[in-house]
């Protein structure tokens, strides 16, 4: 019995139609005569989905009792006993009720597949285990129910059920996904356009990667070596020369012309690991190709054209980009070159682009050979063996005559030993001295410098040639070993430097200390000056006794541009160290610029915050003071009027109005004084941890009783805000929403937690605001539509946004599903409260009972039971003060 086949209908979010697509497939299979049954399908009371269940055999569900509730689950034993050809199992990531045979539904599916039963199932992209952190950062919801990626990767078919975010939101607004009482909360939280777009991109990319895996697997199984141009993959051949950056940019432009183009930069090193390529240049090219969205690869191969073509075919590349050869004309006598060879052997399935650049025919710039760097003691031993060794050997061989051939092998062994110990020169000396001794003592005629037998002449010449060749090879290996070790050290230093500086993890002083430690110097400093005749100043320093006035006083100075220099003291560095030191100097200048830009950004941010406070202060002084003053003046004028004989009750009511207005003025003036001190930079907003349910009722004082419904969950984290500023911002938003809400339709003020932030939504069912006017309503003195005089001067929303941004939050306007406007106030959650909430969630996650018939994605924050609005202080009616 073979293993069953698994087909997964994958979607970006609930409601895209996965279950509908699965049931449609089941209906088609039943029509073809396939034995297909329903193991577990949840239709969520959707009529069209429920209709597709008609005509399909359904295995009765097993009911389990958990914490006093009876919950249905798939009866795995009944399905195995029925043994259909195909079984439908919805919601692959579902957690079974405790007491079930398996903890997870995907484990039930594994048993069905092992039994040889084909399975159709559904899954949302957010339930993949590897994407948990990504989904949480996008939606603010941590998925508790996940499926291991390997389970999904082993699926025989993965079908993407796709829907645009706009279409999905329309389905939800029409009530085709959730019940009407859950639609508003879902659209305002998990199903926002940005969330849906990001989840859809994740789903598309994941399925695209699986398709690419299937294609590579098929090509491997069927031994397909030809390139299939399913999408443009462009391989860039790099040599480590300066033309590499030109080639990478050219390849990036080629990739942009086709959808899904990909750039793969590859550097091929010789098989012995020795190369003359510049590590610094390769590091820059790696950074460049990664910044353009490509990938960098390092391949080892003795035959560079063959290795490049093999890499391109293995990657299913469609194009290769190479630079015109840097070899001079006379060097072509040694071969046609890499570019010509690749173009000749590429075949019809690979296009080869030869790109011109500035370094054409200027030579490869091979390095000048340096000494062997074997150490003085080894060189001394090499000379001793190479010079004294042949003399001692000649004395020893005088006692007996093993023959000329053996004599030559013995002298050759001394030459090899001299090469291994001292390098080229001692070995050449040993070969020359040994050949003279062989000629004089052991080649007829003896004790003469002539040779009678021509064969002996050839033997001596071969002896000298072999000795010289061995000495050359040993010397070259020693130099290359030293060069490879040095290049490896340089590449490690440059990699560390580039990584830290690009990520902004290293400041100027830390970078200078790294320079001092790397090169073993006493001090390091970065000097700069404003002009050619201006004095030098120190921008940063480290170590003891740094040079602070003139670069000429330092042991080492590396210029950075015209008016900056990196100076070091301690010793004079060799010229070969200045290459890496130059990279350090350039990065030190970048670190200095970053520090200054950060300081400028901080100053600009301070000025911007001052401007926001100034705008909010002007709005509050010019407008908010007028309303309580008008109420107080009206009440006082009424009391002083001699035409009306006020009853004690009326007089008490007027006095209460005066007292309320005075209290409001006192509260407002206190906030304004704090704002003025904030504007002058003497204080900052009094940010502290506050419960929203303490501030929200206080913001309802200016609206009629019963016109607002509060939905502030008690489990909501505390927020880090200034309570006075938050109250004023919420009051403006609520009063604005009440003004435009239809009569008898209360405004909803709801709050929910999303990751490290808390959102407060003020929802009305009024006429709403067009998209092109949503930003303008937050500008001062802007009123949506031609509002008549007396409807406010258009500062309310500007004040609310100014106060919100001063506290580090944000305020945005969105459409209310079904009509109206939703103001979303985003605040920072208090760190301690957020940590405590996370700990409590983790502590209770393992004991939470699964739901029988889920109607929303796991973690979706929906409306809580509505609590009556807490009464606030009664205030006189105010003229409209807001923007929309």
UniProtKB/TrEMBL annotation:
It catalyses: ATP + protein L-histidine = ADP + protein N-phospho-L-histidine. Residues 620-831 form the Histidine kinase domain. The keyword Transmembrane applies. Residues 836-884 are annotated as: Disordered. Its main location: membrane. It holds the Pfam family HATPase_c. CDD domains: HATPase, HisKA. It is found in: Cell membrane; Membrane. Gene3D superfamilies: 1.10.287.130, Backbone structure of the membrane domain of e. Coli histidine kinase receptor kdpd, Histidine kinase-like ATPase, C-terminal domain, HUPs, P-loop containing nucleotide triphosphate hydrolases. SUPFAM superfamilies: Adenine nucleotide alpha hydrolases-like, ATPase domain of HSP90 chaperone/DNA topoisomerase II/histidine kinase, Homodimeric domain of signal transducing histidine kinase. It is a multi-pass membrane protein. Residues 836-857 have a biased composition (Low complexity). Residues 865-876 have a biased composition (Pro residues). The chain crosses the membrane at residues 380-397, 409-437, 457-478. It comes from the Bacteria. Keywords: ATP-binding, Kinase, Membrane, Nucleotide-binding, Phosphoprotein, Transferase, Transmembrane, Transmembrane helix, Two-component regulatory system. One of its GO terms (molecular function) is kinase activity. Its EC number is 2.7.13.3. This is histidine kinase. It comes from Streptomyces hirsutus.
